[in-house]
Design goal:
321 residues; alpha+beta; 5-stranded mixed sheet; 8 helices; binds zinc ion
């Protein structure tokens, strides 16, 4: 899928390269990994014949109660579709680009979750509203190689193979010969030319020993090799479809969710959920002192009121959406 609307050709490489170059200054390894991902992606998907209709397309659509056909006066949907492509005249697909850490297998739960993924359902509703009724969503997933740059092996851990010493000058297994000629004390051993090891028996660093830190280039190449060795685990495109009754259920979910939010906004007391207090951040939720410490946010230096858009629900009458 080409980001510049071209039917084929490499997608705006120069544009991407200038972004990568900026990243080189701050995180050259991540830049190298991303370059590898783009290359592997292109290698797998180049030459796919489709036409890009729109990229990062925003939509707005009314919020409708599917049971009654009522349209909300105070709420509407909005969203953005990564891309809309046309396979053949009138046949449109939405595209969702995702990146995931580590490879995915065909039977991974990741795919099962897409069956009930609200975003995919929302794409259908949104695309309808902007005149692209979708046949489905192409879920385009690039998996990041989950590997870190390698460091040089510390000196103390640089293991060697067992050497075979030169027999002619008194060496043996794991024992170096003298390298001297036995007959002529001043001469070098003709068997090993003074080295003391059998020519093929010199101790070497074991294969896992690294003598220097991996460079960004080496790291990027390793990431690329990982991806192209198993393209079916690192580069996925899956078609996600929604049947009519599934879309109805989605509309119902959304209508009822908004109704809950709307009703909540009129409540004076909001039930506290202690399990959520420490889900985010090391020290727990920043609003914990309000919920559990009796802190009045208007009197506390911990909080300040920031300017915000007026909330529509405050103007809505009770009982109407
Ligand atoms: Zn020798």
């Amino acid at each position: 899928m080409e980001v510049d609307g071209e039917r084929s050709g490499f997608p705006a490489w120069e544009k991407m390269e200038s972004e990568f170059a900026k990243m080189d200054a701050t995180d050259p390894f991540e830049a190298a990994r991303l370059r590898a991902m783009v290359l592997a992606y292109h290698l797998k998907w180049r030459g796919q014949d489709c036409f890009v209709q729109d990229v990062e397309r925003s939509f707005r659509a009314p919020l409708v109660d599917p049971n009654t056909g009522d349209t909300s006066e105070n709420y509407e949907r909005d969203g953005k579709i990564d891309a809309v492509i046309m396979e053949s005249p009138g046949v449109f697909y939405g595209v969702e680009h995702k990146s995931v850490m580590g490879p995915l297998d065909p039977d991974d739960d990741y795919w099962v979750k897409l069956r009930s993924d609200a975003q995919c359902s929302d794409y259908h509703v949104g695309a309808d509203a902007i005149g692209f009724p979708l046949h489905g969503i192409i879920y385009d997933v690039v998996c990041k190689p989950d590997v870190k740059p390698l460091s040089a092996t510390p000196e103390a851990k640089r293991e060697m193979t067992i050497g075979i010493g030169c027999k002619a000058c008194g060496g043996g297994k794991d024992e170096r010969g003298t390298g001297l000629d036995h007959k002529e004390a001043s001469g070098l051993c003709p068997g090993c030319k003074g080295d003391g090891w059998k020519p093929s028996g010199r101790p070497r660093y074991k294969a896992h020993v690294r003598l220097h830190d991996e460079t960004p280039g080496e790291y990027g190449m390793r990431c690329f090799q990982i991806m192209v060795a198993e393209p079916d685990r690192y580069l996925h495109r899956r078609l996600v479809v929604r049947l009519e009754d599934e879309l109805m259920e989605h509309l119902r979910d959304d209508w009822e969710t908004v109704a809950d939010i709307d009703a909540d906004s009129r409540r004076d007391h909001h039930p506290r959920n202690p399990d959520a207090c420490f889900v985010f951040g090391g020290g727990g939720c920043e609003y914990r002192p309000i919920c559990w410490g009796g802190v009045d946010p208007l009197d506390s230096p911990l909080y300040q009121i920031r300017k915000r858009e007026p909330v529509v629900v405050e103007t809505a009458e009770e009982g109407t959406m």
